[in-house]
């Protein structure tokens, strides 16, 4: 039960951060920049955190991993919002923006994780 509470705590903070970030950033235009931002930042952070926990701080608490990755980053990032916003772009005839949203979130997310991993390895090598 403690693990569930740790994940819930992380999710609540991550979800609140997602709300604040997307509310602010989505004012920039008619593209889901807020969701893109939290997804890319979340991917970058999970690259850093998972690499630190598995390669550098191997004795770190399992609770810390649950709090940060499953909880906080799970609450911060959002595949369902990304999917819904992509469908809304398609429904309104903004096909190129929908394709751009898919490409930026998926390819950008993979690149962000990779950069996070490389950054940690550069710092601790």
From TrEMBL:
Transmembrane segments: 34-54, 63-82, 102-124
GO CC term (a single one): plasma membrane
Matching InterPro entries: FluC
Binding-site residues, Na(+): 74, 77
Record bears the keyword Membrane: yes
Membrane topology: Multi-pass membrane protein
Subcellular location per the Swiss-Prot or TrEMBL entry: Cell membrane
Substrates-to-products reaction catalysed: fluoride(in) = fluoride(out)
The UniProt record lists the keyword Transport: yes
Regulation: Na(+) is not transported, but it plays an essential structural role and its presence is essential for fluoride channel function.
Gene Ontology MF terms: fluoride channel activity; metal ion binding
Main location (coarse class): membrane
Name of the protein in its database record: Fluoride-specific ion channel FluC
Protein source organism: Megamonas hypermegale
């Amino acid at each position: 039960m403690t693990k569930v509470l740790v994940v819930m705590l992380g999710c609540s903070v991550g979800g609140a951060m997602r709300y604040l970030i997307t509310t602010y950033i989505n004012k920039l235009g008619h593209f889901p920049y807020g969701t893109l931002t939290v997804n890319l930042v979340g991917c970058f952070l999970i690259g850093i955190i998972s690499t630190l926990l598995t390669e550098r701080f191997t004795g770190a608490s399992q609770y810390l991993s649950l709090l940060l990755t499953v909880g906080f980053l799970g609450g911060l990032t959002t595949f369902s919002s990304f999917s819904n916003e992509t469908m809304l772009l398609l429904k309104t005839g903004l096909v190129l923006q929908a394709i751009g949203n898919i490409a930026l979130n998926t390819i950008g997310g993979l690149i962000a994780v990779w950069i996070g991993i490389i950054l940690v390895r550069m710092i601790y090598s």
